[in-house]
Amino acid sequence: MGTTTPPRTLAEALRARGDESLAGLLRARPDLLNPVPNDITQLATRAGTRASVVRALEHLDRFALQTAEALAVAPDPAPYDTLLSLLTGDGLDDGDQRDDAGAAVTAALPGALATLREQALVWGEDDRLRLVRTARELLAPSPQHPSPTGLGPTVAEATAGMSPGRLQEILAATGLPATHDPVSAVAALSALFTDRTRMAELLDTAPVEALSVLDRLVWGPPYGEVTPNPTPPVKWLRDRGLLLPVSTRTVVLPREAALHLRAGRAHRVPEPVPPVVPAAAERDPQAVDRAAAGQAFTALSTVEELLKLWNGGGPAILRAGGLSVRELKRAATALDVSEPIAAFWIELAYGAGLLASDGETDERYAPTPASDEWLDLSAEDRWTHLATAWLAATRTPGLVGGQDAKGRALSALGPELDRSAAPDVRRRVLALFAELPPGTAPETESLLRRLRWERPLRGAAPAAESADLRSRLALWTLNEAELLGITGRGALSAQARALLDEGEGTAAARLAPLLPDPLDHVLLQADLTAVAPGPLERPLADMLSVLADVESKGGATVYRFTPGSVRRALDAGQAAADLHAFLAAHSRTPVPQPLSYLIDDVARRHGHLRIGAASAYVRCDDEAVLNEILADRRSTGLRLRRLAPTVLASQADPGSLLEALRDMGYAPAAESAEGDVLITRAGARRTPPRTPPVPVPEGPPVPDDTLLGAAVRAIRAGDTAATAVRKDTSDGPSSTTPSGALPRTTPAETLATVQAAAMTGSTVWIGYVNADGAASQRVIAPVRVEGGFVTAYDHTADEVRTYPLHRITGVAELAEDGKG
């Protein structure tokens, strides 16, 4: 009773853990919780499944993975000293200066083993370390799956099936005593290859060319092809078992021989310490914050412009989903950016819930009702909304323009752009930025090396993509963070640090003083332009965007008034007097006479022509104007004919006819069936209420502490029921219950036993069949027995339940601790 028995299985090792340790396992590997295992044995079985082990290995850092790889080629079980030797070497290679590296490995190995134990990939005491079988199969060497260490199979594995005569020939060539026992022969050859002194003597007799062959194989891959008549160096190696046959044309360097040549190391370069991310440049933190704030303001302006661009209904959705190449180019031109950057802004607006499909038969993209609420927010709150959406999004705009696994083009807003690793990579990249002093920009290549060390197996991409998706995500993160104003001049801004550490409110407060205040005025000029020396208040900006076209952007925005832009304002229901008053109220300079003349001239001609539905018709009181339209060659495609002196009919629809006449230089107005002028309101099209796209998670979400606590209690309770020791009743009225079977007793025995347990407060084991016919075993503590029911605390379910006595198949008392 005073000694602890070492665990014989993973289930026993897990059963010996405390509740906090079990919760740590479930937190690190949340896939084990779906559904909650019935008991410890089921938890151990699930932890050893291939899919779960692969997912766990993908979350290991470089050194923890190297430790697991070393265990995969070590004897099973392996003592701690053997594992340490595989990672540091045996120290007998001359001139190899590895003292510092060995000390780093020695210091880091306990932590790596603790990580592997916590995730149930390794179990057992330090003198008998065991890697779970599935992980060993994934990491151990084979011809179909070479080991990540570059080591081949052991002598015993490589000689399995070899004839005894061939083994005798190898023993004779190496000078070992002959034996007719194949097992003894293999053991003697293995002992030779693991003996440093005798192995060195053997290699001293090898031809120089043979040593060159070994040098090519020693760090992997250990397999090589040979011809039916091998060269003398290869024949020398093959005769002495340093190259063992895998097939008629393939040989392999056995593991023991490779480890001798490597001085006992499983890896060429162990990496116990994460790479340092040095500073590429150090800048003034205030300059960084100002640069980031300026880019944040540009980001807000770009998203607002995109919403205005698609205000009246955006582009149509492709049949396969997403945006066509033509529409992406059109958006890029309108935003004055490249197509990849346009794809980023479109995806950002979509991920933030500001754009969506309208769900109509002729489905199109359009702003959502949430976009109006977003526009009403302050600039700093709008930015934090975008930045938060970007951090959590699994949408990956960097993939736009590439191809999927089937060779199909990936389009913006398409269905194939989700990559579950994206949020983790973004936050990790920014966390590495945050570890540097304020104003410090990290070195990109070092940052990528650090990410590869932290997750060496993560980011396996489809065949059509690069094998290192994680590095590509990191590079995209650097570019997108700069575009969004998370970083400025390559360094993390103070507002972004606050967003990561303290939340949106603090980040908005940090950003607000750095953003320019919106203005309520413009400067009108005689060349029909208006200059906005800064951001404008929203009502002014909205009205000005209808009345004028943006000519250039930058520190100041230049708007140009044209006949078309003035007509657009008149179409929106404004009168000439309204436009004059608006300009006079919001200009710091007098309204130029050319601009007043332009407004009056367009207003005088506006609505002179009327377009209605015939299919469509043109109505005008001036017959000369209609004659001019008929005589214009550009109207040929409209197929116009005169119905009356003042009316023309067309086979084109009213909208097409309206646009065609405007392109010809006229200023027609649409009219209703009653003859009233139709007012076109800008930005009238909105989608139905839409929620932002939900990020595609990478595996199951990490459970919270409440769920973990409940899961651990349920697993413990189920394990109590499954492993409870029952009293031996072989000499009583009932026979011994077979292992795994439900207990069987008569109704009278069942009633008497549960009544006695209720009186003494003891715990019993029952078999129970529910109303659906499902049988189960339970450990209960009866509290009350009456009316054909037993009320008891069910240890399996961790709650008080009531069971009908007629559904209990049998009952047995539990043995006392330590007794069987």
Report on the architecture of this protein:
The protein contains 33 helices and 25 strands. The radius of gyration is 39 Å and the shape is extended. The strands form eight sheets. Strands 18-19-17-16-20 form a five-stranded mixed β-sheet, with helices on one face. It has a five-stranded antiparallel β-sheet with strand order 24-23-22-21-25. A four-stranded antiparallel β-sheet has the order 12-13-15-14. A hairpin with a 3-residue loop joins strand 16 (610-612) and strand 17 (616-619). Helices cover 45% and strands 12% of the residues. It is α+β, with helices and mostly antiparallel strands and 820 residues long.
Main attributes?
single chain; 820 residues; alpha+beta; 5-stranded mixed beta sheet; 5-stranded antiparallel beta sheet; 45% helix; 12% strand
Largest sheet: 5 strands, mixed
What is the typical, i.e. mean, pLDDT?
A: 85
Shape: extended
Strand content: 5-15%
Distance between the termini: 14 Å
- Derived from helix and strand composition plus strand pairing, the structural class reads alpha+beta
Radius of gyration: 39 Å
Strand order of the largest sheet: 18-19-17-16-20
Helix content: 40-55%
Which residues form runs of ≥5 with pLDDT under 50? 459-467, 730-739
Strands, total number? 25
* SS field, number of helical segments: 33
